[in-house]
Amino acid sequence: MMEEEELEFVEELEAVLQLTPEVQLAIEQVFPSQDPLDRADFNAVEYINTLFPTEQSLANIDEVVNKIRLKIRRLDDNIRTVVRGQTNVGQDGRQALEEAQKAIQQLFGKIKDIKDKAEKSEQMVKEITRDIKQLDHAKRHLTTSITTLNHLHMLAGGVDSLEAMTRRRQYGEVANLLQGVMNVLEHFHKYMGIPQIRQLSERVKAAQTELGQQILADFEEAFPSQGTKRPGGPSNVLRDACLVANILDPRIKQEIIKKFIKQHLSEYLVLFQENQDVAWLDKIDRRYAWIKRQLVDYEEKYGRMFPREWCMAERIAVEFCHVTRTELAKIMRTRAKEIEVKLLLFAIQRTTNFEGFLAKRFSGCTLTDGTLKKLESPPPSTNPFLEDEPTPEMEELATEKGDLDQPKKPKAPDNPFHGIVSKCFEPHLYVYIESQDKNLGELIDRFVADFKAQGPPKPNTDEGGAVLPSCADLFVYYKKCMVQCSQLSTGEPMIALTTIFQKYLREYAWKILSGNLPKTTTSSGGLTISSLLKEKEGSEVAKFTLEELCLICSILSTAEYCLATTQQLEEKLKEKVDVSLIERINLTGEMDTFSTVISSSIQLLVQDLDAACDPSLTAMSKMQWQNVEHVGDQSPYVTSVILHIKQNVPIIRDNLASTRKYFTQFCIKFANSFIPKFITHLFKCKPISMVGAEWRWSLQ
């Protein structure tokens, strides 16, 4: 019974002393020990076996027991000492807590005293600074009052001086004084309820009104609407009056500018009336020469009278452009039947040159219209539509020489004056479009005549099939027309020109390319196996001659060039035309036409080679293979087919060297056509004897 109680006590003790691994690890780190008794996984049986490994070691059992008892007594003494040392800990802790509470109460009392003293100090500071704040407010109000009185004195004196100077026309002094009076008057906006201030403000407005009317009268006297200009030139009074007008209502400035420009251009309206000979397009240079002289005259006589920021010279030029555009539009409507292409282009060229002159001399700051769209520089290419646009002077020379590899020139900056006069020619550009239609028709006819006169191109085995020279000439001419038309207009005329381009692209494809493709023959002169055996290698001639094969390859290469260049032409036209009209530029139909020419050319080449092989296959199927008694290396029909392939394919390959993808298409189409036909004829060769079957069938 006692043993059971002891076992239960030991188990309970072990359960109580069971520590978590984290706690056990912490104890081992704080109190490291090598004693097996201190280990968490201590095993009494293993420990005893360690002390007494053998029966002979039991002889020392008494000594071991004594050592363990001694160790137990020491542990008991240590535990007893620790327990006794903890007897007074609770009492000491309560005493320390009471002392801490007393200290906190004392600290709280001191903090409360400090707070009370701070509030008293703040109250004392407020009482001390109250008088100082009152003095600060009084000083601020006094300063404001003195400043306002000074402004009022300046305003009253300035208004009196302004009225007196206005009567004496002392515009130089008025310009400086008026600006100062207006600046001072701004300080009194919040005091307009005071009658005296409101009265001064009304006097200033009245003075401004009187000044405006007086300055306009002075300019009317100096530059009357009827009569000649003032012979003595501008005076200092008018120069100072312009400075005053800068300060007055902007309408005064606009009225001065309007009257001066109208008077300055009055002579122009008389000289170039609609019924005058110099008003017609052939003498349009005289209009621009007249305004250039007037600008020089203005700079000499009136350049210093008007402020620089008024840009009077540019305003005169801009108004001249507006008047000229209106007058030219009117006279062209009246004499529309007299407008010829050369005359129209001459007038447009001179007008665009004048607009360029204006862009070099003036900034365009007085214009209300936006500047031109910026055109991105195209990448380098041999295609004429990807080159830099030539200047008008160089266009004709570049077209004649066909030089498509000229060094690039930097693009000119945008011209804000572009179209300011030349816009009036746009309604009459149908004359130019009709002329280009006629010229392109004659060009196509010349291409046809030249082709018939010169004949097909020479065989080319070095650099591939030659592109017809007429193709490059056509697209260079297209480029010239496109550039020229885009300089005239980027609106509906460009759409009309695009329609003309489409028309003659189709005509070129039909008359020059498709119209000159060799026609297939229907002769049925076939070959027999006996004739194949007698013929020598290389004696047969293909259905198309060498010249005809080269012509087909040249037309194919030309159609490919036209297809790629037409795509670039479409992109370039979309760059030139207005954004709202881009959707109307579509050359897909023309590109499809050239694709059809390419397909037809490839089909002709395939049909030619296929037809050349037909007699051999027919003879093969008609031969009595069951009667063959002797065999060779390969059958005669195989030799004939290989002969035709060796004759045609190298020629086609060399002439399509620059268009390798279409040579590949030719090979694929021929294989797709010939192989099924070969298999069909092969099945017709029945019955076949054992000797005939030994004959070589492969087309290696």
UniProtKB/TrEMBL annotation:
<feature type="region of interest" description="Disordered">
    <location>
        <begin position="373"/>
        <end position="412"/>
    </location>
</feature>
<dbReference type="GO" id="GO:0000938">
    <property type="term" value="C:GARP complex"/>
</dbReference>
<dbReference type="InterPro" id="IPR007234">
    <property type="entry name" value="Vps53_N"/>
</dbReference>
<feature type="compositionally biased region" description="Basic and acidic residues">
    <location>
        <begin position="398"/>
        <end position="412"/>
    </location>
</feature>
<keyword id="KW-0175">Coiled coil</keyword>
<feature type="compositionally biased region" description="Acidic residues">
    <location>
        <begin position="386"/>
        <end position="397"/>
    </location>
</feature>
<dbReference type="Pfam" id="PF04100">
    <property type="entry name" value="Vps53_N"/>
</dbReference>
<dbReference type="GO" id="GO:0005829">
    <property type="term" value="C:cytosol"/>
</dbReference>
<dbReference type="GO" id="GO:0042147">
    <property type="term" value="P:retrograde transport, endosome to Golgi"/>
</dbReference>
<feature type="coiled-coil region">
    <location>
        <begin position="97"/>
        <end position="138"/>
    </location>
</feature>
<protein>
    <submittedName>
        <fullName>VPS53 subunit of GARP complex</fullName>
    </submittedName>
</protein>
<dbReference type="InterPro" id="IPR039766">
    <property type="entry name" value="Vps53"/>
</dbReference>
<feature type="domain" description="Vps53 N-terminal">
    <location>
        <begin position="41"/>
        <end position="451"/>
    </location>
</feature>
